[in-house]
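Researcher: Quick sanity check before group meeting.
Model: Go ahead. Protein one:
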Amino acid sequence: MNAREQRLAIALVAILLLGGGWIAFTKMVKWKKDLEEREHQLSLRRIEAEELIKTKDFWTARSQWLESKQPIWTSQRAADDELNKLITETSKKEGVTVLASLQQEPVQQDGLWASGISLEVKGPYEKTLQWLHRLQTPDGHPTYDSFVSIQGLALKPDVEDPTKIHIQDLHIQKWYRESNPTASPAPPAGKP
């Protein structure tokens, strides 16, 4: 091999070494970034776990309160009857007139069941708003253990009597917990 060929061979080896070094360098940089990202994610998860452990007693107490206060879903009929009774009794007590009602299909979500009803009501402004509030807090009880939620409503003044309001598309749900949340939920009564 003459001197020219030796220089070409050395240049080729140098280019191959530099190219290989560059590829190895970029892979190492990417690997380092991936490791740093994983370390950051692990650090965040550790901090989150520590915070959850600190608040364990708080969440355990809330869970125990829910288990002792929230009613158990037994059947769609029983839940619908209870919700209808609540609506009827509280609306009469507050002087609110129920113009129309339509029972809704039950909702199942994360170990909970909800009985629902859609209403159209009319009544004096203050009494009707007080009724909506008391639906969610029976007898004004401060523990909020009625488990009733209002999913939506359309409120407008009554055209016949301006001292009254007319509420349409009032969707009310009462929430129940499953009797055995680990078992697969039974279909509501009357369903195949």
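Researcher: Fine. The other one?
Model: Protein two, sequence then structure:
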Amino acid sequence: MHKTWLHTFALSLLFGGIIAKLRSAIENHVPVGYQDESGFHLGVKQTQDRWPAIW
């Protein structure tokens, strides 16, 4: 009886761990922000619109 399911499971755990490490490395080193005419700014761009616009 072949145990290919065991090898498949082990490889999926290995690749899952590698992907998790890559994702955490990217999230820790890539800044979140926006770019406009004056350059790059960290954070989320604030809109000038008031909510709700109907009132």
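Researcher: One line on it for the slide.
Model: The radius of gyration is 22 Å.
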